UniProtKB/TrEMBL annotation:
Protein name (Swiss-Prot/TrEMBL): DNA polymerase I
UniProt KW DNA repair keyword: yes
Principal EC category: transferase
Subunit description: Single-chain monomer with multiple functions.
Domain DNA-directed DNA polymerase family A palm: 697-903
SUPFAM superfamilies: 5' to 3' exonuclease, C-terminal subdomain, DNA/RNA polymerases, PIN domain-like, Ribonuclease H-like
Domain of life: Bacteria
UniProt entry keywords in alphabetical sequence: DNA damage, DNA repair, DNA replication, DNA-binding, DNA-directed DNA polymerase, Exonuclease, Hydrolase, Nuclease, Nucleotidyltransferase, Transferase
Catalytically driven reaction(s): DNA(n) + a 2'-deoxyribonucleoside 5'-triphosphate = DNA(n+1) + diphosphate
Role of this protein: In addition to polymerase activity, this DNA polymerase exhibits 3'-5' and 5'-3' exonuclease activity.
Family under the similarity heading: Belongs to the DNA polymerase type-A family.
Amino acid sequence: MPVTPPGAKHLVLIDGSGYIFRAFHALPPMTRPDGTPVNAVFGFTQMLSRFLTDHRGSHLAVVFDASRLTFRNEIYPDYKAHRPDPPPELIPQFALIREATEAFGVAQVEQPGFEADDMIAAYAREFVAQGGEVTIVSSDKDLMQLVRPGVQMLDPIKQKPIRDPEVFEKFGVPPEKVVDVQALAGDPTDNVPGVPGIGIKTAAALIQEYGDLEGLLANTGKIKQPKRREALEQNAEKARISKRLVQLDDQAPLTLAVEALAVRAPDPAMLSSFLAAQGFRSVIARMGLGEAAGDAGTRARQAAVAAAQAATALPEIDRGSIPFGPYETVTTLEALHAWVAEGMQAGIIGLDTETDSLNALRANLVGVCLATAPGRACYIPLRHVAAGTNQGDMLAAPVEAPPQIPFDQAMDALRPLLTDRGVLKVLQHAKYDLEVLRRPENGGIEVGPIDDTMLISYAMEAGKHGHGMDELSVLHLNHKPVGFDAVTGTGRTRISFAQVPLDKATEYAAEDADVTLRLWHVLRPQLREEGALALYEQVERRMVAVLRDMEVAGIKVDGAELARIGEDFSQRMVVLEQEIHTLAGRPFNVGSPKQLGEILFDEMKLPGGRKGKAGAWGTDASVLEELAAQGVPLPRKVLDWRQLAKLKSTYVDGLAAAIDPRDGRVHTDFSMANTSTGRLASTEPNLQNIPIRTEEGVKIRRAFVAEPGHVLLAADYSQIELRLLAHLAEVPALREAFETGQDIHSRTAADIFRLPPDAVDKEARRRAKTINFGIIYGMSAFGLAGRLGIGPGEARGIIDAYFAQYPGIRDAMERLKEEARLRGYVSTSFGRRLWVPDINAKDMVRRAGAERAAINAPFQGGAAEIIKRAMVRLPGALKAAGLAARMLLQVHDELVFEVPEAEVEPTAALVRQVMEGVATLRVPLAVEVGSGRSWAEAH
């Protein structure tokens, strides 16, 4: 926002109520000397001080909500009725923020019966009528209807203007039509009903076509889509009520005359007293209220504070983006102490590490990056060596190393900043950096508190795009960061990061911290707006420490048992090869898809062969399964051989190579943001794909063992996805079966095959089980036919019988597909949005795949949510109970613990209690618990 010229009238209206909540959730917990929470107060005073010292307007006012009930509750009693009470830590800060406003000498406005937004609308109308310009400091979408010539908005966190183009990007219509779009789309946050099934995009298209809400409602007969037309006709009055709820009242009575909003200097004594009582030293310094300090240490700290304030001053609204760099290379303790002081005062820093390995448990710390404000960042080299130095000598400081602070001295200087509970550390993929820094050889620092931009993005947009830093930077900052290959090279010429010259290392590394902090400023405020705040704070962020501890713990693997399994698999593969050669009529390389295709389709003349672009026959699993289903024995033998080969390569040879010689355990890496459903993945080694019920899978699990004096305890959610299906769909029979403890597959078989319960045999139950699980994955009749070894016609008949018996399931599936088409995403029972990008694709194959994903996502995603909730609660529950069990693995719906032999029973009881109690569904959750010396025995 430009400085107001002398004599010009410019009113700055601060949405006080909105800013309180944003500041509270954006800033780390802070308390003043008497223990009162003050993080929102601190953010608020920082903002006010900057507006006053930078002369940002001729008039300034903070606008608050006076009460929860307004004239809108008379129109619609349920308006905002379901909003939760404020967090306990925020409640005492409301009064303090009003005190802060008074101490700064800033006018404050509130009016019973009206919302702050109405008062903002009224003052904006009046001030523009008097020839002035207005800036509304808020990002609240409801205020975007006020944008017009003379009135703009300023996002207080992103520090970006909101004018006509930004409003159009948000709503698809100009500001004057925003209320019509909101009336149709509704707002679940405020309980504005809207029209069911119509989202922002559809509403914008309708308003663009028919002009306004009444024009649309007068022409519903022209709507081609039957469901949409019916929804509009049946909910016309709700739409009209919704418009009255979202339309701001710019005729609200003005509680203060416009002249009373003129900017005036605060009373220094009153302001200094208030700020000192809160412990806000940095604001006192910014306002020039403190006494000059005499000692050199204090002067140095004040210099660092001044630098931080200069760097973090809010940018002008019409200024170009802050440049990325140049950044500082910190090679002296004096410079590092200044950066630490600056970070302390900033209260929020970007943090990143540079290492010599992607394996956090083996990586040596090479350098640390800090950012204290957008564009203000540094790189602290710690273990750089001269180019050409043997990378095996990383921990030794060679003579020819470039200038840098001795490692221990640097870590001692950083420790207070990285552990200070009043400074929020913002990282991208925090789990990796926390593991690196906690290792003794890398400083042994327990970093906290933290935010993770990767997980913030993932909590809002799982499945919509990737969540790596580079992709997020391009997406949200329109900036492509320096690539790792650009500084280390590629292929055989690649060098370790420790060998990168300091100027290039600084350009690359400091930018990472800068980008991470900028992403936080953009993404963190969106969590509440997107309904993902609770998911992020209560689940995703808490998972970081849980998974870090699990990875560090690892799980013991019996190398001798692995060798025996490998030998068994090798012998069986030899036998299978001989059988395959006999069936083929000649020997060939079973592992060669090209040779196999020639055998099947050129020599054996089997039907259904398809050649790829390179001219070779396709022999993937789907082709072989199709042939096997037709009764051809050779494809089945090849599938068996491939399964053994994969298991041997991945889980026998791979596990053996992954055993850490230091402790005899494997330490998998849990990926937190790779799946579209919220499920965890694991790599190096991947433990998610070990077959669960096959003989081979059982053998592999025998190699996972407990330490002496301990057992492994496995706790598995029973049929959790089917329970979620019963929860989401109106299927009384399924709910009854779960509530009464019936075998769900036998009950399904009895229902769809019209059998008495005692007449259900194994085959009927097998078919019912296949369709029960298949239906969650959107399985087609062709897919079911392949699974059951029957014809497509018979499979279609089974599916029709299933839906006839359980029509609520078909209705639920159709609702999910329609939700995905309208919104672009589906939601779990716990509110996570799971994006389905191809749901409206023109290509029929891609669209069909997206429809299956839309059906399955809420069940997989809901199951992931439930087990994550259990995981974040279990470590604390075990500790509180005095139990020594360690959580080691999470594999789909199962958790594996290592438990002292004497504590198996109480641990099992506690684990079951916590896991079954983390969510309340319409059917009970059930957990099966077993224990044994090996993972296989625990089942």
